[in-house]
Amino acid sequence: AVRDVLEGYAKWTGIVQHKSDPNDIDVRIEPKFTIDDQEPYTGGWCRPQTDGPALRAMAMAKWGQILIDSGHESDAKTTIWPLIKFDLEWVTENWDSTGCDLWEEVRSDDFFFNRMAFIYCLNAAADFADQIGESLGASYRSVADDVRAVITKHWNGNYLYESENRPDDGATIHAITTFSLDLYTPDSEEAAATIRYLVKAFCNEYPINQEDNDAGDPGILIGRYP
Questions:
Q1: Cβ-contact 175, 154 below 8 angstroms
Q2: Where are the beta strands (DSSP E) in the chain?
Q3: Tell me: the pLDDT tens digits for 202-217?
Q4: What percent of the chain has pLDDT over 90?
Q5: What is the 3-state secondary structure (H, E, C) of 33-79?
Q6: Phi-psi domain of 154 (left: phi exceeds 0; alpha: psi -120 through 50; beta: other)
Q7: CA angle 92, 97, 103 (to 5 degrees)
Q8: Residues designated as active site
Q9: d(CA 159, CA 6)
């Protein structure tokens, strides 16, 4: 069942990557498609979504590794690698461009979530490239290091902020739990301080948190942003 799903996703990716986007953006950063015909959605939406190419490449790199481990290296090289390479061509050249946030509401060229995603996905793709004998691994790691060099400014001494125009955002916790390898890991000082800060913010924001706290019920509900 898993193979059917991921083969279908790989096929879909190969189709939409080469569509013409009527929204006047590179189709690789188009956030929404209609399922039946794989065409870019033309209704109102926050565009572009610049984390898309990296996240697709990461998913394909992990699937490619599974194919190799299960004896299907040829499929990994001939079908999966071209999808990864094409998406990461956009990332390596445009990672500092402006796009929409995770919640598709505000725009910035410096989202913490996106930066963490770029670092993680580029390194995952680099490992895959090495595995199949492709030469782009070093280039991907170099770009990941460039992103890493600028993401450190998101630590303001008290917590990790998402962006200048929306600093307090639960997306930072998503990024920490999903993309941290050796940077802002869940047990790091910065992660702990960020969680503590957002827990307090959402405890003040949501009456349900205050009611549960008064009742002695453990746990805090964290939303998108306070």
A1: no
A2: 99-100, 107-108
A3: 999 999 999 999 999 9
A4: 96
A5: ECCCCCCECCCCCCCCCCCHHHHHHHHHHHHHHHHHHCCCHHHHHHH
A6: alpha
A7: 110
A8: 101, 104
A9: 37
